[in-house]
Specification:
345 residues, Spore Coat Polysaccharide Biosynthesis Protein SpsA, Chain A, 7-stranded mixed sheet, GlycoTrfase_DXD_sugar-bd_CS, transmembrane
Length: 345
Amino acid sequence: MRARNIVALTAIAVFWFTVLFRRHIHELGEIVLTYSTFYPLLHNHPDILYRHPENASSTDLEASYSSLGPVVVPKIIHQIALGNASVSKYQAAITSCTDLHPDWQHQLWTDVNATAFIAEFYPDILRYALLHHSGGIYVDLDVTCRVPLDSTPIVRLPYVSPGAHPAGVNNAFIATEPGHPFLTQLLENVPSHDLHWALPMRIPYVENMLSTGCMFYSNQWMSYVRHLMKGRLRRPVYILSDEHGDMAPHMLRGKVTTPIFVHGGASSWHGWDAALFLTIGEHYTFYLGLLFVVLTVFFLGAYFWTTSKRSYRRRCRLFPFGRVASRSSWSPTRGRKPSISQSMV
């Protein structure tokens, strides 16, 4: 009965854990789906990649421009400096973008004007809200511009952002038209993904990544593209790649120079947990294998322990006197009357 009670209690615990943390489990399922289907999706639909021409002549660029249609990205560059962010630290990067885009509007959002904008137009989030409302370009503060973006076909695409490692898309750079339906989807799904992980301790890296950051962004992007491929949506999204379809040269990962940008590699919201999860991300196949081995050993141990207990009880029912004999073993002196010499002592 003890083994049955353990199994029953375990089943009840698993049931209530699933009920209480169903949104977290759904979030983890989205991550698994993104990592497992991202590259097969690109393989089956290579037109998702925007193949940025490298070292092309002006004639080739004009030809590529005409095939993409009119400019749809407004001439606005958004950058965000909230809280304790030091604008002077990134002044060189900011100036590089403003100098290369003299006829563009440059909007630096701080606590004051960002709060007013959010209060007036959106209740939740800034980066996606700005682009949804105004369109244009978003770049992180540590991104240095190398070329004027209106000299590239990027501004003729309805939505484009670079790829991420090991899978997904990166939100450090976004070029979009106003009101793109993918941004609508992002804003609608932010509240349901604003979850706490590992209460009462906070894990800021995980919470940022899964609520508004790159992992949330990638999961929503995959969901949008799946609907796009089924014909349920019309406005496309693109991933920045080179002319051969390789995303790596345009990835804003760490300190890196791409054909369009220089990425400084700053991570303002990374903490102690970031190092742990980045390490796991770099070697995720090893850690998944290790987790599988640990769980296999645990369940095999639980199985053999349960079966051994059942086998022992079955033997006890078949040979009930064996237990009695073991408790009161026979002795040649037991049951005899004491001798005369023993009684006189």
